[in-house]
Amino acid sequence: MASDSVPGMTFYDIAFRKPYRLNSAAPNPWKARYALNFKGVPYNTYWTPMLDITSTRKSLGVPACRTFPDGSEYYTLPVLIDSTNGKVSKLGDSFDIAVHLDQTYPNSGAGQLLPDDVDLDYTCPIDISFNGPPLSDRPEWREQENYKPWVRFNDQIDNAFTLHVQLMGAGMKWDEEVEKDIMAQFAQRAGVDDFEKLQVRDKGGRNKLLGSLKDTLKDLAAMFGKHGDGPYLRGAKACYADIIVGGWLRMMSVTLPEDEWAEVKGWYGGVFGRLHDSLQREFGKVV
């Protein structure tokens, strides 16, 4: 049973197919996991079955931070419950978790997650403004001048990858006993009668989407090349902007066929491959 009463930190991640550590793929929980490991703070992972996310989040008293197109509440993960300092902080959004960690543990681990010397000037070249940006359950942070560039960067990166998420859908691995129910839930959310309608499986269609994603990330790749071989935006030192991109790369590494993932890793001189490998090596521990 989920609990927020145990001292320490509990991180709520989505349980894909066992072993969870290998198949964990959701980008926003991975942003939070990278951030936790970056800060070097001890935490425990609560693996939450996909069909139990809504009830778990409600039981923790963490409000939904997103809505469906019809305005109804969308309960998703990650959630972080932090009770290490004599009070309980409940965070239900990956960006909010990063801000909380930076404010609460400023000198821990690898240092500052959200420094002020990062180039965040990326714009997704395809407009999906009709979907709107992800909503934060700490909206006041979005209005603070020092966080606005970070919020915008996060939104733009999410837009770029969300446009091409059909590449990844077919590769998500769920436990067989609940897989059909999960697929039916995805289909219902998308307003279609069959999960297959959300997939792109034919080679021609996938190549087209891959080409579109590559073009969409061209300007982003150039940003990573400004400091030699990187592998990060600032060169050798990582920050949360790298993690924002890295969460999506983690999803692709788990869900794409091997040949497609190898292709993505090699784009633009291998900038995304180096970024993914470095983040996994330095901050990819799954506890």
From TrEMBL:
Alphabetized InterPro entries for the sequence: Glutathione-S-Trfase_C_sf (IPR036282), Glutathione_S-Trfase_N (IPR004045), GST_UstS-like_C (IPR054416), Thioredoxin-like_sf (IPR036249)
Superkingdom of this protein's organism: Eukaryota
Residues in GST N-terminal domain copies: 16-109
Signal peptide location: none
Protein name: GST N-terminal domain-containing protein
Organism: Rhypophila decipiens
